[in-house]
Amino acid sequence: MRNFFITSSEERDENSFSFRPSEDVTQVNTAPSLASDGASARAERAPLIPRSLPVCAGRLRGTFILPVLIAVFFISPFGADAAVRSLTVGMSGADVTELQKALIDTGHLPKGKATGYFGPLTETALKKFQCDKKIICTGAAFEGYGIYGPRTRTALGGAGGYTAPRATVYLNGKPRTGPATEKFEISGWIPYWRTATGTADVLPHLSKLTAVMPFAYSVKSDGTLADTARLSEEPWTSFIAEAKRQKVRVIPSVMWGNGESIHRILSDTKKRIALEDEIAALVVKNNFDGIDIDFEAKKHETMDYFSTFLKGLYQRIGKKWVYCTIESRTPLDERYSPGAKIPADADDVANDFIEMAKYCDRVEIMAYDQGTVSVRLNTARTAPYAPVADPGWVENLITLAAQTIPKNKLILGIPTYGYEYAVTPLGGGSYRYKVLWPFNPRYATDIAAKLAVTPTRSSAGELAFTYHPDSLPAPTGDDATQVQQVSVETTTVAQNANSALNSGKPFNYVTWSDADAIADKVALARKLGIRGVAVFKFDGGQDPKMWEVLK
């Protein structure tokens, strides 16, 4: 959704918008990338985009090879129904958590590191245990060193039994059966800053949707709710009435993007319970079908408090739906170059997938705002490479999430917007990208038309083009306001917009998600067998052909 929240006062025009905060950040293609899943940023992983907000306002995202996982299945000592798998770097799940707890008990892993994700810290601890127990103390992974297999499992007391999740769909702990639950779901967010155009855009297409999520409420610093969208007023009242008539779920979003405030409130038992009560009462009073929890920029130390919050809300909300919108979690080996120094806390995460699978009826992965944060794809794709969402990157996110969260709860977030970057060639095939702003597609097509440049399909499957800002004609009339939005200082200007890459000089890179890119994501979600997709955002500014592929 966004790596930031958007406010109406920050909008440029109907086709460009800004996320908060506004600081410029840079990223080099070959550099280690940001921490995923909302964990606090490290120096070794400079973020492409500031993560202060949901990515609902900017939630962002072909093909790469997943690491080969050595997996041995055998009869479990924990019962005939439990398939026990060998564990290695990159895997996650309840069995990984149990392994980590056992290594903590033996003193090989620091306390507080039972994250459920098998990262380099867990691997180091496991290798030391294997050496101490004289199981194996050298060799490659395929020989068993650093792999949690049968011999090591026996030595550690059998920790880490794993039972594959069932395919049953649950609503607040109760199985939901019948044809309706088998439907591929299509939903999306309507931003409060584009209420009129957003509701008008969606209204003729309601029959295609399973749910709509208005950005409706935000959380104030004192832990109470702010009525941001005013759903009790027009045009929302008429829109919600029609959605209910067509049996489309109305699931308003509660937005919160301040990590410090989130931790302060959720770690305070009294304030956390008060927030749970207020949200549950809000849903009941307004007869909403449920609520969408969109708390972003959380810290690792908040993870358990957030899980407790979800459990409390889940218990209070009765038969209503609980949707959970979360940042993408990139596998560790995607974020660092081979041989790079990986921090000990690199596998710290902000969302406990195991707990979310218990208390969230739908888990919406914000699979966008990728930027350059896949080191593996950075080197595999044709430059410039700074996509909103590369399908290869997206597939890896969903594959990782599906190890812990049942596929029938997983929703793929799909972007409808784009980004403009100021790009500096560094030589040797590397580029520095400075994000300028996000935009709706018309912004890009207008610039392309002025420059007589034909956008092409990028290596990430999005439309894109390059240009030098000074190649734009001098503004006149109403265009004079818009040029302020795209002007940047340049010292050298190529004579031809198409010569940007050949000149070795700085240039602008424009990339966005059009209807074909959206169709690719929908097809990917179906291929992966997950519940459905959620579009960020419905505001009337996306590619109008989008509605033709949402089916």
Strand content: 15-25%
CATH topology of the domain at 169-417 and 515-549: TIM Barrel
Per DSSP E runs of 2 or more residues, the count of β-strands stands at: 20
Low-confidence stretches: 1-14, 16-36, 39-83, 161-167, 177-181, 478-500
Order of neighbouring strands in the sheet with most strands: 6-7-10-11-12-13-14-20
How many helices? 17
CATH superfamily label of the domain at 169-417 and 515-549: Glycosidases
Query: What is the general shape?
Result: globular
Question: From the 3D coordinates, which CATH architecture of the domain at 169-417 and 515-549 would you assign?
Answer: Alpha-Beta Barrel
CATH class of the domain at 169-417 and 515-549: Alpha Beta
End-to-end separation = 21 Å
What's the alpha carbon Rg, rounded to whole Å? 24 Å
| Helix-and-strand structural type | alpha/beta
The portion of residues assigned to helices is 25-40%
* Main beta sheet: 8 strands, parallel, barrel
What is the residue-averaged pLDDT? Answer: 79
